[in-house]
Amino acid sequence: MEIPVVKQILSANDEVAAGVRDALAQQGILAVNVMASPGAGKTSLILATAAGLPARLRPGVIEGDLASTIDTDTLTARGIPAVQINTGGNCHLDAPMIRAGLAHLPLAEIDLLFIENVGNLVCPAGWDLGADAAVVIASVPEGHDKPYKYPGMFAAADAVVLNKADLVAYFDFDLAYFERGLRMVNPDAPLFVVSCRTGNGVAAWVNWLVGRAKR
Amino acid sequence: MHELSVTQGILNLALDAAHGAGRIVAIDLMVGELTSFVDDSIQFYFDILGKGTAAEGALLRIRREPASAVCGQCGHAFRVGAPLPPGCPACGSSHLRITGGSALRVESIEIEDGDSGR
Which residue in A45, A197, A199, B85 is deepest, having the highest Cβ count within 10 Å? Predict the structure, then answer.
């Protein structure tokens, strides 16, 4: 006997994500899912963004890593409330982890929540975390072919940041080729070319983000 | 590694749908070509997670949803694979939208009973 089911395999995750989204909306918090490969500059972009935010928008961070509290230590040293989630080998964050992480953050003191996903250009794109926007960071040393090789990740982005732009002369990085690949999978997401090290281009990205804030 | 949590999702949906009606002998899945899920890996985890449940030993029949795109310029619809093409094969425009290949669904389950023919 065949029983029709037709259900999304990740529906359990999606239901928790919907709850997270509601909880954040009630608090007036804008949540951003930050995805990139390891070393592209996720924490650097969060730090540079936090430094450029108007005082009325107070940042907070959920940090996802396989192991260690290195990133959380860096953030809390700058006075940014942060909670570390160690996935213990899991290659992405999921919605139940975010729900658990929220309980450890002073939500009344946060307006902009960065969710720093595990460094990986594959599976994080498959899990809805209940965030309002997804930003994908690519970096110059990774090469200009990333949108072609990881279409799912770049298709999931509401904004794309190309970091380490100050290194472009050293890596034969073809920005036009990168952007062509990006537009194939994602015609609409704005592309911000930045250097977190020099601060170049960060203001335009911060402006975009501030424009989406809920208060 | 992410196949583990996906496989747990498959098992939960199948057990819910079976509602204790009997042993689950097969589960039909639709997995998009553009998803990063490996058939063998899902079956491997399923064999472990399903032990001791009504779905123990069930066969996973995985169908692949083809990846497809449509051109935003001329409307041409076509199949794609990874790596994606640099432009529309009909008009060359790079304004493409991915329209298929990201499915991840349990379509149906098969329960052992009198008219299964087994």
Answer: A45
Structural domains of chain A, count: 1
Q: What is the pTM of this model?
A: 0.85
Spell out the long-range contacts of A209-212 with Cβ–Cβ below 8 A and sequence spacing 24 or more: A209/A30, A209/A32, A209/A49, A209/A112, A209/A159, A210/A53, A210/A54, A210/A57, A212/A30, A212/A132, A212/A133
Place of tokens 């493409």: B96
A88 reaches B (C-beta below 8 A): no
| CATH number assigned to the domain comprising residue A69 | 3.40.50.300
Closest CA to B5 of A13, A15, A129, A118: A13
ipTM: 0.76
Model confidence over B79-116: pLDDT tens digits?
988 777 778 899 988 788 888 888 999 999 999 975 54
Distance CA A145, CA A183 (A): 13
By the 10 Å C-beta count (0-12 exposed, 13-18 middle, 19+ buried), B78 is classed as middle
Contact B115 A1 (CB under 8 A): yes
Residue at A72 is within a domain: yes
Task: Check CB contact of B14 with chain A, cutoff 8 Å.
Answer: yes
Topology at the third CATH level for domain B3-66+100-112: hypothetical protein PF0899 fold (3.30.2320)
